[in-house]
Each structure stands twice: as C-alpha cells, then as structure tokens.
Amino acid sequence: MEKLKICIVGYGWFGKMHYSVYKDMKNVEVIGVCDANEKTFNSQQKSLQDEFHKDVSQDKDKLVDSIKIYTDVEKMLKELKPDLLDIVVPEDVHIDVALKGIEYGCDLIIEKPMTVNYEDAKKIQEEANRKGVHVYVGQVLRFDDRYRALAEMLENTSKEQIRHISMERNFQSKSHLVYGRVHPTYSCLAHDIDLTLWLSKNKVKSVSAYANSFLNRTYPDNIVAVLELENGALATLQNSWHISKKCPYGFEFNSKVITDTDTFIIKNEPVIHNWSNDTVDYPELFFWPKINGKTKGALKNELEHYIECALEKIESPILPLSDVVEIIKVANAIEDSINKKEKIIL
Questions:
Q1: Model-level pTM?
Q2: What are phi and psi of 36, to 5 degrees?
Q3: Please, what is the Cα angle at 159 between 158 and 163, to 5 degrees?
Q4: 8 A C-beta contact, residue 196 and residue 214
C-alpha cells in the first residue's frame, strides 16, 4: 500500500489531535513534527482546550521514536521532503507556513480558517495552482455526519427555494482566551459562513454585522451578522461567548434551514447523558471522540478524505478550495461591516 509521508507543523492541542488520527491510518506515515516551542513535545500539562473539550482531555498519544522533531519548519521541509504538510499553527501565520510548504512542492492541509485575509487566501490559491499542488482546509462541519445528512436532504432543493437560514454558535467566556486570539468571525463564524454557502447553494450579496464586547478584550464577544443571499433570502449568524460556566460541554449550537416546503433543524443535544452524584456530563460524540483508544468522528472523516485525495492527486470534491476562498471573503466582509458600522456589498 502506498503511504503518504506527512509532516505536522504546530503541535499544540489540535496538532496532537491530528496526530492521534494519523497514527491509526494505514496509508500515511508521519515523518516529522515541528513546533516553535520545544517544550510542547514533552509537556504533560493540560491546556485550556482540555477544560472545555473534556471528552478528549485524556492523555494524548505519544510520538513514536522514528518521528523527527523540529523547531524550524523550513529545516524540516528541506531535510524530510514530505508529500504533505499539515498546518495547525496560529491563524495569523497560516499564510507564511502555507507559502513555504507550497514552495517545497507539498500538498497542504490547513486548519480552519485558511487565512484571516481574503487577499492571502487568493494568494495561496494562486501559488498552489502555479506549483500544481493541492490545498485542503479543515472546515470540519462538512465532515460531521449530521450536516452530511442534511446536505443530502437538501440535494434536490434549488438555491431559489431557500427562504431563511439561522445559525447560532455560543461558547463559555473562558474559551475566548484561546479562540479569541483572532476575530471570532474566523474562529467561530467561519463554520457558519461555510454551512450557509454550502447548504443554501447561494453566494452572499451583502453583509450587515454588529458586535459588542463585555470582556474588554481585543476582539468582540457578541456578534450578529445578517447575510443577504443572491436569491434574496437572509441568513442570520449569531455568536456569543457568554453561556453559563455550568454548561457541561463548553459550547452549543443550533442550525436551521427553511425552504419553501420544509424546515430542517440541527441541535447539539447530547446523545449520552451521564448523571452522577457529583456532576452531570454529556460526552461529545460527533467531532473527535475517542472510542476503544482511537479517534473517531468528523475530524477522522475529514483527514481520511483529504489523505485519499492527496494520494489520488485530486482536489477535494467535498470542499473545493474555491469554496474556502469565498468563506474568507465573507468573513472579511463581516469584520469590515462591524468596524465600519455599515453594510458591505460583496
């Protein structure tokens, strides 16, 4: 069996999650891992993500001895020459690492958001096309079985039949300390922008967005965005970082799609309830649960799909790169609308 040689750059909480998927795959070999902070390779300290993703907060899988460790991504690329570079670094440096990977002829997997700037997204697309490499982006909800099922239900629904879309995604305030390192339109609303574009089959004509902050941090902690779709329908995207500290799974979301004949609703209601004398817990079973010691769910579906695409040397039929560039375009418009306090025409 042909194996894809992979290097991972960024070995924080989610980089370790990616590795836990790859280690159980038969058609990949992780040959190198890079992180600017050398201590991350040996640290057993729990991260803030472990607090609000309690379902996967158990000890992470240890790197096997054959994997080479680096703190300089260019040195790793030059020495190991991987087939694919998996980018799980902070969002503001995605562009630099992506262009470096493309320069060395690697296919890329880039965690969401691809970039925080539309011009940078287009540059990655152009450079990838020029070098003949493929770029795959981690918009994980496209690989969530709930949304895959909904997309199939909407398969024969035309974009003209869409009447309204409502997306609501909320977090505990402590998670803003991690995901608030960039504007929430990229860390949070990028999911719902993608779902809106994908499920409605519409592009966005204009954006009117509003935000405020009770946490007094760099970026807002309440956002409402109204997207006018090309068929005249509206999509409302809502995001707050103020749900109760007692929420047992750290974040909650609701998605609603209304057509001229049907209404579809997805809620993250718990599948398993765990009521004990000390606590109430609802383990998350759709994104990245560990079952029998192996990571399952949407993250596994996503990475397995992208590895198959890279081995076949094709673009993803589930999430073409042009769709991702459009997500960043709309995300930029939301941020611009908030900052300028005006409607943005796309």
A1: 0.94
A2: -65, -25
A3: 110
A4: no
Cβ burial 310-337 (10 Å sphere, 16+ → b, else e): bbeeeebebbebebbbbbbbbbbbbbeb
Higher pLDDT, 47 or 241: 241
Sign of the four-CA dihedral 95, 203, 222, 287: negative
DSSP states of 300-333? HHHHHHHHHHHHHT---SSS-HHHHHHHHHHHHH
From the CB of residue 8, how many other CB atoms can be counted at a distance below 10 Å? 27
For tokens 């287009």, name the residue: 122
Describe the crossing of helices 118-131 and 321-340 by its angle, rounded to 10 degrees: 160
Antiparallel, parallel or unpaired: β 107-111 and 84-87: parallel
Smallest CA-to-CA distance from 328 within 201, 231, 189, 206 is with 189
Closest CA to 87 of 69, 76, 101: 101
Q: Which two tokens stand for residue 186?
A: 């990229």
Q: Helix, strand or coil for residue 223?
A: strand
- Cα–Cα distance for residue pair 294/58, rounded to 1 Å: 12
What are 202-235's pLDDT values in tens digits? 999 999 999 999 999 999 999 999 999 999 999 9
Residue 213 CA to residue 216 CA, distance in Å, equals 6
Residue located via tokens 């970039």: 115
User: What distance in Å separates the CA atoms of residue 136 and residue 143, rounded to the nearest whole number?
Assistant: 13
Give dist(CA 76, CA 163) in Å, integer.
Answer: 50
Compute the radius of gyration of the chain from its Cα atoms.
20
